[in-house]
């Protein structure tokens, strides 16, 4: 399906760019692991294409063009693009899923802030749950309940990343913590971004965010038990490794300003072993009723698009509106640069 050289390139990019997922992927069967690594390579490429560029709006527009080409069967001549095009064809990947990811990256390009937890979950649904839904597609799973739990796991993992990276994001001028939580804690967002500093009030906000993910991680386990048996250890591993990052933040007193929580090789090996044991337990226990819990509302559109992918119309209104705003901003930026250059003459 995927050309061997393209797959090798994708594996190397994940080995160096996403060590947590690379570790968890070792427990996936090859039929899932290979396309999963290719999928993550394309998602990583998309994230870096926006994050590492100064003209972020232009970067998102270029990614949308690359997505168009991949779905047309004429991918850009690059390993990750060719591999992703192969995935689209083999698995009938609903376009709503990668488009949701691009919309989340566009929100990043706009330096969007989130008024409340619902807004933050909507962002997490796009940049993380969309990937979880795509992973289900790679496993040939389109059951609504299983998809809902995969989306729970995606939101939990993204919120964990946000809790870990508060300081790193702030130094880049980015803020993801809910604004209403900051207001309740007496923290002024603009003042915080100018001089990021660890305080007890900020620690309580980070702790609150990590408490939010605990229920999501718990609910996600019911969905893992609904996946193909061979895929369960790898997904359990991802769940335990990312939850472990949150535990490390807690051990550091919820200080993600002066320190960045890291997990070591021994910890990862322990979680990999626990994942195998937990998979064995699923064979002896009845399926949990938690599998039927209502999805997080902000992820519902992903579940619908994936479960009913043959009936759902092309999902693009939200992305197109966001791209239009980005395009306008980029045009204004270029005009301002040209005007400034003309004035210097």
TrEMBL record:
It comes from the Bacteria. The lineage of its organism: Bacteria, Pseudomonadati, Pseudomonadota, Alphaproteobacteria, Rhodobacterales. Its EC number is 2.5.1.32. This is Phytoene synthase. GO terms for biological process: carotenoid biosynthetic process. Its cofactor is ATP. Signal peptide: none annotated. InterPro entries: Isoprenoid_synthase_dom_sf (IPR008949), Squ/phyt_synthse (IPR002060), Squalene/phytoene_synthase_CS (IPR019845), Trans_IPPS_bact-type (IPR044843), Trans_IPPS_HH (IPR033904). Pathway: Carotenoid biosynthesis; phytoene biosynthesis. Keywords: Carotenoid biosynthesis, Transferase. It is an enzyme of class 2 (transferase). NCBIfam families: PhytnSynCrtBRhod. GO terms for molecular function: geranylgeranyl diphosphate synthase activity; squalene synthase [NAD(P)H] activity. The keyword Transferase applies. The keyword Nucleotidyltransferase does not apply. Belongs to the phytoene/squalene synthase family.
């Amino acid at each position: 399906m995927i050309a061997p050289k393209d797959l090798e390139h994708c594996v190397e990019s994940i080995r160096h760019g996403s060590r947590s997922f690379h570790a968890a992927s070792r427990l996936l069967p090859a039929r899932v692991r290979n396309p999963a690594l290719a999928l993550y390579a394309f998602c990583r490429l998309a994230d870096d294409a926006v994050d590492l560029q100064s003209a972020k709006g232009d970067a998102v527009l270029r990614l949308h063009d690359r997505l168009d080409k991949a779905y047309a069967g004429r991918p850009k001549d690059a390993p990750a693009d060719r591999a992703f095009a192969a995935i689209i064809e083999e698995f009938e990947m609903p376009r709503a899923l990668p488009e949701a990811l691009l919309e989340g990256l566009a929100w990043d390009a706009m330096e969007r802030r989130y008024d409340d937890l619902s807004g933050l979950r909507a962002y997490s649904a796009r940049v993380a749950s969309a990937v979880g839904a795509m992973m289900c597609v790679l496993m040939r799973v389109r059951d609504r309940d299983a998809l809902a739990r995969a989306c729970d796991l995606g939101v939990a993992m993204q919120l964990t990343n946000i809790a870990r990276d508060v300081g790193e994001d702030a130094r880049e001028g980015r803020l993801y913590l809910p604004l209403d939580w900051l207001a309740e804690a007496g923290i002024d967002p603009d003042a915080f971004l100018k001089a990021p500093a660890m305080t007890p009030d900020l620690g309580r906000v980070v702790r609150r965010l990590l408490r939010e993910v605990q229920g999501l991680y718990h609910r996600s386990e019911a969905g893992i038990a609904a996946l193909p048996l061979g895929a369960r250890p790898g997904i359990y591993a991802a769940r335990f490794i990312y939850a472990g990052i949150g535990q490390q933040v807690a051990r550091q007193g919820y200080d993600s300003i002066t320190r960045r929580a890291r997990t070591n090789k021994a910890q990862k090996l322990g979680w990999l072993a626990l994942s195998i044991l937990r998979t064995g337990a699923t064979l002896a226990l009845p399926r949990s009723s938690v599998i039927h819990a209502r999805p997080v509302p902000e992820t519902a559109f992903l579940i619908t698009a994936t479960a009913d992918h043959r009936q759902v119309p092309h999902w693009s209104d939200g992305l197109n509106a966001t791209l239009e705003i980005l395009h306008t901003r980029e045009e204004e930026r270029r005009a301002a640069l040209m005007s400034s250059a003309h004035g210097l003459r």
